Amino acid sequence: MCDDLTAHAEEAALAQSGLNRREFAAIGAAAILASGFATTASAKGAPKLKEQTVTFATGDGTADAFFVHPAKGKHPGVIMWPDIAGLREAYKVMARRLAESGYAVLVLNQYYRSSPAPIMNSIAEWRTPEGQAKLGPMIRLIDPAATMRDARACVAFLDAQKAVNRKRGIGSCGYCMGGPFTVRSAYAVPDRVKAAASFHGGGLVTDKADSPHKLLAETRASYLIAIARNDDARAPADKDTFREAAKAAGRPAEVEVYNADHGWCTIDAPVFDKAEAERAWGRMLALYKEL
């Protein structure tokens, strides 16, 4: 969960880099390239891509999103839910990499109710007082019901695209606040969303009646739940609760604690861990082979 407790790990990572939060945030795109994650995407033989900013209707207005896919052919669709800082260059880079593996990827601006993307240029901006003041009102507009409305709209958009193979299932992946959105996507459109991956997602197990782990029986998806070690240290029972819920629901679920801290998969995060991010990425690609 992206809060004050996980901020301590970020502070330690920043201290090693010799930068403060404002300096790290100012690096922006340079931090993405320095991560090395993007450079592995354009492997020899990767397909040429087509990308654009798109808009489409939802139950709450008009959403904006980034859509990228191989220039030729039809491919399984994927909904990518960004972390708390929203759609920005880091997630475009990640979406391009996934598209090069043969997917039509839609990255939603989850804050479209308030403003077009980008809201922020890096996750480091969220940690500033100004960033939290800016996002606070926007976050409050996104409740579980709103997320499911958005998921239905995203699926409808993907299914209307020539680049999407409707004979295949749709995948969903989410980071930080987007983690539980992947489960809610599978719940909202069970006949289409067949694989969901959560990376350092928060709120997957709660005591609420609509907690994501309580929705699994009404889905038809397989799951990858990649947990940060510091999130697990705070709530060590959550992984077992999710595993048990998936087993009871008859849903395949790979639930694992990774040797990295909250935010490790997001390439512009201070705690980005390339080795563990690559491992998690590989597990997501294995999951999506089932689509």
Automatic annotation (TrEMBL):
One of its GO terms (molecular function) is hydrolase activity. InterPro entries: AB_hydrolase_fold, Dienelactn_hydro, Dienelactone_hydrolase-like. This is Hydrolase. Keywords: Hydrolase. Residues 64-290 form the Dienelactone hydrolase domain. The lineage of its organism: Bacteria, Pseudomonadati, Pseudomonadota, Alphaproteobacteria, Sphingomonadales. The keyword Hydrolase applies.
